[in-house]
Design a protein that fits this description.
The chain is of the alpha/beta class. The chain has a domain at 18-194 and 234-263 and 301-315: Rossmann fold. It has helices at 9-13, 30-41, 61-64, 79-86, 101-106, 108-129, 162-181, 207-216, 236-248, 268-278, 304-310, 318-332; strands spanning 21-25, 45-49, 69-72, 91-94, 133-139, 184-190, 193-194, 222-224, 230-231, 234-235, 258-260, 266-267, 287-289.
Length: 338
């Protein structure tokens, strides 16, 4: 099962992308592979650039079942490969990045190279190829510990980790390229995207993936901090929808940052309770560990700007998305035999 089965993409986006050629950087990863699948369903010729440091070729099987995918195993640091992949593309969906706030604290230089310099390379390739618009996967981590809720795009960024700083720098590059070169860009600030294909198999796994792996294996989910911290958890179909709306937009976006979320605040304690119930293990109460460096306390998106600019509204709500995601993890993760 994939998230795309929850959404009628043809009804939402019609034939706009039919026959178009697009590049998805990081397209074998979690969000990128969902974009690839939906665009293939809509008749798009998809080029994927991915170095497979986090993505998997198998993630592209659903896309290939519906259309043509040209896969190039390379990095956004490989400028000649980027130039080749971008030729003839109408749109670029730049999803490639090193994720994880804690890992960025440990490896700041590597994160800067891939996430910031990599974005510069993508923008340069898009400019040279005459791409119409670049959609960039920005991050709500840009807001840091700003007290105001919900988070509006007018709040000055306060990055608390190298990862967040990378994303803010890349947003600035998008704006600069729109202003200096006329390359239209759309930085989309994702809020805690989750869904099928999000890997639980590393030490920095996102919380929903990490919870699923623990609960299905019969272990108590680990919460860092007191669990009162809250997030605007956003099912992956909403991120795909926002990207497609941004690409289709008839006017100029011009590097304007736009939140992408559900506009609902859920605490990590509430998430743990919901997931243990959905996965049939309400007996597995959370285990608490010290909070991690760089983590923010609360996150909730204001969606008024993205609604006004793109006509965006969530297509799959939190509970429906969490049920679909829990069901997917149950099919792919080994259960305990104790």
């Amino acid at each position: 099962m994939t998230g795309s089965s929850l959404t009628d993409w043809r009804q939402l986006h019609g034939s706009h992308f039919a026959g178009q050629r697009v590049l998805i950087t990081g397209g074998a990863g979690f969000i990128g592979s969902h974009l690839a699948e939906v665009l293939c369903r809509l008749g798009t010729h998809v080029v994927v650039l991915d170095d497979l440091c986090a993505g998997h070729v198998d993630n592209l099987l659903p896309a290939r079942a519906h259309g043509e995918v040209d896969f190039v195993q390379s990095s956004v640091l490989d400028e000649p490969a980027l130039a080749r992949c971008t030729q003839g593309c109408r749109y670029v969906f730049h999803q490639a990045a090193l994720g994880s706030v804690p890992r960025s604290v440990e490896q700041p230089r590597l994160y800067h190279e891939v996430n910031t310099t990599g974005t510069l390379n993508v923008l340069e390739a898009a400019r040279a190829a005459g791409v119409r618009r670049v959609m960039f996967a920005a991050s709500s981590s840009a807001y840091g510990e700003t007290v105001a809720l919900p988070k509006t795009e007018s709040i000055p960024p306060q990055p608390r980790s190298p990862y967040a700083a990378n994303k803010v720098a890349a947003e600035a590059l998008c704006l600069a390229y729109s202003c200096s070169y006329g390359l239209d860009t759309a930085p989309l600030r994702y809020f805690n995207i989750f869904g099928p294909r999000q890997s639980p198999d590393n030490a920095y796994a996102a919380v929903i993936a990490a919870f699923a792996k623990a609960i299905i294996a019969g272990r108590r989910p680990v919460i860092y901090g007191d669990g009162a911290q809250s997030r605007d958890f956003t099912f992956v179909d909403n991120a795909v929808h926002a990207n497609l709306l941004a690409a289709r937009h008839e006017g100029t976006i011009g590097g304007e940052v736009l939140n992408v979320a559900c506009g609902l605040r859920v605490s990590v304690n509430e998430l743990a309770q919901a997931m243990t119930e959905m996965l049939g293990r309400p007996d597995l109460t959370p285990r608490y560990e010290p909070e991690r460096a760089g983590d923010v306390k609360h996150s909730l998106a204001d969606l008024s700007r993205v609604s006004a600019v793109l006509g965006y509204k969530p297509v799959v709500d939190f509970e429906r998305g969490l049920r679909a995601t829990s069901k997917w993890y149950r099919t792919v993760l080994p259960a305990t035999h104790s």
